[in-house]
Amino acid sequence: MARTVRTGTGLSRRELLRRAAGAGAAAAGGIFQAGWAAPAAAQTTQKRDLIVAQGGDVSRFDPHMSTSSNDVRVSFNLFDNLLSRHPDGQLFPGLATQWKRTDPTTWEFKLLDGVKWHNGDPFTSDDAKFSLERTYDPAAHTLVATVFTTIDRIEAPTPASLVIHTKKPDPLLPARLAFYGGQIVPKKYLTAAGPDQFNAKPVGTGPMRFVSWVKDDKAVFEAYPQYWAGRIDVDRVVFRPIPETAARVAAVLRGEVDLITQLSPDQWDRVNQNPSTMGKGVLYAGLYVLGVNSKVKPLDNPLVKQAMSLAIDRQSIVKDLWRGRGLVPNGLIAKGDNHYDPSLPPLPYDPARAKAKLKEGNYNNEPVIIETTVGYVANDKAMSEAIAAMWKDVGVNVRVEVIEYSVRAEHNRDRSFKGLWWSDPTSTLGDPDGMMWRLLAPGGPMDYWRNPEWDKLGTDARFSIDEKFRDQAYKRMNQMALQYLPWIPVIQPSEDYGIQKYVAFTPNGNQQLDIRRFNFHMRRG
Amino acid sequence: MSRSAGALGAGPSAAVRAAWSASAAARTARRRTRVPWAVRFAAAFIGGLIAVAAAAPVVAPQNPERGSLGARLAAPTLRAADGRAHLLGTDHLGRDVLSRIIFGARVSLAIGFAAVAVGGAIGGGLGLLAGYHGGWLDEVIMTVADAQLAFPFILLAIGIIAVLGPSFRNLIIVVGLSGWVTYARVLRAQVRAVRRREFVDAIVALGGSAPRVVLRHVLPNVASTFMVIATLELARVIVLEATLSFLGLGIQPPTPSWGVMVEEGLEYLDSAWWISVFPGLVLMLTSIVVSRTGDWLRDVLDPTLRGA
Amino acid sequence: MTMRGFGAFLAYRLARTLVALWLVSSVVFVVMRLSGDPVPLLLPPDAPTSEIFRVRHDLGLDRPLAVQYAVFLQNVLHGDFGRSIHFRQGAMGVALGYLPATLELGAAAFLIAVLCALPIGILSAVRRNSPLDHGAMGFALIGQSAPTFFIGVLLILVFSLRLNLFPTSGRGGLAHLVLPAATLGAFTMASIARITRSAMLEVLRTDFVRTARAKGVAEAAVIVKHTLKNASLPIITITGLQLGTLLGGAIVTETVFAWPGMGRLAVESIYNRDYPVVQAVVFIAAVLFVVINFTLDMLYGVLDPRIREAG
């Protein structure tokens, strides 16, 4: 399903309300369908608080200073972007109501009028300009400095209009604005308070307003009554960290929390069978892959890597380890992205061919090391051990090393992994440019393998406005990547949440947890 | 330690007499105490455990590191999804719990004995030095001992392993280091007691070697005490290794270790409790049996150690 | 022994203690520095190298080890343990912030241990060789030999998951405190129960008791008073050892029950390479241990003059 970028007209307030009502009606149908199995009382609530339990604590509120999913879920509700990516994959207006490309390297945006920051200051195009420029301002030291590298300069001609000039034609700019890095921060308040104070007491335009934060305990927010898209359905939102899976699941089963993230596949049935809770999942907009340090022997040999890929029984991993909550990838492009090719078969399992390839590649029992974390990527350690056993069965001399997050972070930035490691690349733009190219490009975070033809295709495709050309380019890149395997894709899992049955919300594959009216409300009796 | 009270007089025969009197005491003790059935059971258990651990590849029904994903989280059964019997169930990767426990015994016992040896060697050596030399060396060694006791050792263990990396060798070193103080103290006290006697100076005046005399008098007395300490330490060390492995700092996957198995099963405690419970029970039983044996040895050989 | 002699003894012990504290801090310093660089943890993978250098410089981590050590010592003498890399606040402040949770756990553990062990010990001695006695001593054996983490796991399985009586983890009301405190206190409870039982048995044997009974003094009063007196010294010894190693046991218990105390903080900080916090926690723990043992030594010396003689 190719995703088209909407160069749409803005949605009127009536349209927004209609959509919200539609979502509610669909939910009501759901109640009646499942209602026979459980008492109706458990399905509605009068609660005015939403309590969310995540697998880790918030680290920063400043949206430009962290990209961890635990922070993303919070910052996308504290702040607004110019455009918003809805769970159905479409781009919708955010703080920008209209956008269009007026010439190959210029985008013009019309912004909302009358929006106020949480502290009462008016939102204007100056804030948008300041925000975007901040991300790549070297003095600001943001963690999202590479998101808007295609921008050349920004103009704010009137308080409600914005003009962005790109260095080369960039058809994906609206998609970039919808993802992390594109959250808009207040110029006046941030400049006056400084980044540390801003992080301690963040101010945004989003549907919830910051109240308090106790580290490792909870972060508390209140509904922002003047939110431009309508006040959210609850008065208070609380984010709590519960790192242990079992404890997190127990919390939702007991009714201590309303929603949990990172519901493991082994607990999916339990949460669904419990009368008051249910599981809700969405295909992750990305892949779980084994990153490969192709500079290290024997991983510099494509035949060895192909053998290793053939030796992985992905079907079994998906069916048994993940209980069916996911699918086997067919390449390095995630399902749901632009240019995903459904005609390609899922990556095959063929241990006999794997052994043959090892022989063909003159594999001489060189050690292969998987450096795995525990829980950085869901099921990472379990998958490592399972895959190691599968590789041992075809004769690969493999060893699993468990490493701390700190070591992983170090190896990641020094590009000093000993062999293979787990990565969960997110498709940030719904396009291979935002995943495969973003991470594997020259100078990118996973730059271990280079090929001139591949590199040229990636660069050209990024700046091309010819979708046909881009389609061909990414097809070819995918083909080459399956030959040289800079990544070994393993699974495209389902991002699962556990919720109380009275919670009605649609999860987003890119890990944003959207509590805005169109996407979230509590079923009230 | 008053045992050396019998070793009076100078010359080689004194040492022989000392050794004889020590063993005589032991023999008397043995004659007087029937070996209680609990201790017989303990001996059989430990012997059995060592035998099983040594013969693990033969005794274990299945490969502890290969499991069938389709048979994961299976309850104890005679026929699971992979067609095999799993008397204690399978874990989250379909591996046979019983086989993993058997191979885990290998790991725990190997590290246990090695660590006790390391601790005993270091502690004994330092204790000898401290007791014999006295003076500043004694002060330094005892201060280091104090420092180690003032310190929650497990933190140091975690820190060191974080630096050196988790491996068999590092684990043995760290766990061995955790217990040297007990041996050191005992040996130091014995050496000091003997060192002070006038006969030592007399021998030196006659041209003999003081260290040899002290050693001859000390070692036999210390032997039984060391045995008691070593047994009690073995229990403690096995538990420490399991704890470190439980925290993720000990044995690395896929090698099975009782501590690791308990940790792996935590996530499934409410559905597949056997993954954590069986290894934990075996660990607990081993600890109880070994420490009871140590208690009994102490009661028989050296009651003065009570409360040490 | 003269008062002056005792004073000299105390001063000497104090000096030894300070040296031990210094040694402990230094070892931790070296070990943590060697364990690696915390900076990559703080920044994203694609942060430029200049960023890494800048942050390292800000944190003072790019100076030679000897210089860092000197700075560290100097700061410690002023009570400054540096800024936590992870929490971005004063390290000592962070550590002290987590201390109450651990103290709460420790106090509860000790309380449970004593309150349960004393009656059990007494009853076991009174009904010697009865099933109660055997059962209680069996449990005591388990409590002393079983690994703390497994006791915790078993308690969670039985009392939280199966019987649904207590929450599985976290800190909150009284209900959250029961299982962790029972786990942490298990060893102490077992030890005290056995000591009390032995002490009780000895007391029951003495002539004094027989005479008192003959005189018709209330049996209960006799039992309690004299047993406790007899058992008090060994119990105080055990207490000293237990309280001192509280932090060690707390680390495991807090990890199993996700209890937000100082032990768990220490482990997390080691994983995060947050040196200042590790140093602060170790320092607090060592001070606590030393102070408690010092106090107990003094108590001992006062209670039992024979000990002072032996020095």
Please sum up the structure shown:
With 308 residues, chain B is mostly helical. Chain B is built from 12 helices and no strands. Helices cover 69% and strands 0% of the residues of chain B.
| Percent range of helical residues of chain A | 25-40%
Number-wise, the strands of chain B total: 0
Question: Any idea what the radius of gyration of chain B is?
Answer: 23 Å
Label the overall shape of chain A.
globular
Main sheet attributes: strand count, strand direction, barrel closure of chain A: 12 strands, mixed
Largest interface: B-C, 41 and 49 residues
Q: What would you give as the CATH superfamily of the domain at 103-305 in chain B?
A: MetI-like
Structural class by helix and strand composition of chain A: alpha+beta
Low-confidence stretches of chain A: 1-41
Please explain how this structure is put together:
The complex is a heterotrimer of chains A (525), B (308) and C (311). Helices cover 32% and strands 21% of the residues of chain A. Chain A has 525 residues and is an alpha+beta fold. In chain A, strand 4 and strand 5 (106-111) form a beta hairpin. In chain A, helix 8 (302-310) packs antiparallel against helix 10 (351-360) and helix 14 (452-462) runs antiparallel to helix 15. Chain A is globular, with a radius of gyration of 23 Å. Chain B is mostly helical and 308 residues long. In chain B, 69% of the residues lie in helices and 0% in strands. In chain B, helix 2 packs across helix 12 (274-301) and helix 11 runs antiparallel to helix 12 (274-301). In chain B, 50% of the residues are buried. The model of chain C is unreliable at 307-311 (pLDDT under 50). Chain C is mostly helical and 311 residues long. Chain C is 80% helix and 0% strand. Chain C has helices spanning 3-34, 39-42, 49-58, 65-77, 91-126, 131-145, 148-162, 174-205, 207-215, 219-244, 246-256, 262-271, 275-303, 305-310. At the B-C interface, helix 5, helix 6, helix 10 and helix 12 of B face helix 1, helix 6, helix 7, helix 10 and helix 11 of C.
